[in-house]
Amino acid sequence: xxxxxxxxxxxxxxxxxxxxxxxxxxxxxxxxxxxxxxxxxxxxxxxxxxxxxxxxxxxxxxxxxxxxxxxxxxxxxxxxxxxxxxxxxxxxxxxxxxxxxxxxxxxxxxxxxxxxxxxxxxxxxxxxxxxxxxxxxxxxxxxxxxxxxxxxxxxxxxxxxxxxxxxxxxxxxxxxxxxxxxxxxxxxxxxxxxxxxxxxxxxxxxxxxxxxxxxxxxxxxxxxxxxxxxxxxxxxxxxxxxxxxxxx
Length: 248
What we know:
The protein is 36% helix and 27% strand. By secondary structure, the chain is α/β, with parallel strands linked by helices. It folds into 2 domains: 9-82 and 217-229; 85-213.
């Protein structure tokens, strides 16, 4: 590790770069915006780049810069956004809920989705929504602010609402509804578990599961422990970018 003081950026670069050439895999945790210091000479050395897009004032510019870097490295650099990591256990919970026969039966009739999160973690909410859209085979029809209209594979309309609750957990809730059916995953602020439920006609279940860390260090450790190429994140990026670009 380095603790450097002063204003000579050239010396900073030379000192750091001299220690980055190694035969070992290089994991780099970039904190804050992608500034002009995020340059080819740096990111071409990286095997795994960790960043947190919730810290970005201009997410569109940040993701454009990220995609350019990935293209320049021909996809060799593994990219891991902590905003994506924040929804890991939410995604597992949703997949588990729809293993239920009643939920599976209701899936083609889904007509509404509500995502509740802190406004600071809008990117995490959009990434979770992009994952749902991608896995469901739905398509985006229109978008206005915090309301998105989707079309299901069956041709039905699915209305999405994004609701910001700044006093709650980073992602505080996800509801998926169909006629006579509702699946819900929720978390209270500071709670280490997710509450999961299905309510359908003559059928109701409730259970709990682990939640993701709130702090960045915990999220980084969790992500590194799972390793992998983070291919699912790359799969949802096209839908996510469409949501991000259309959200103004």
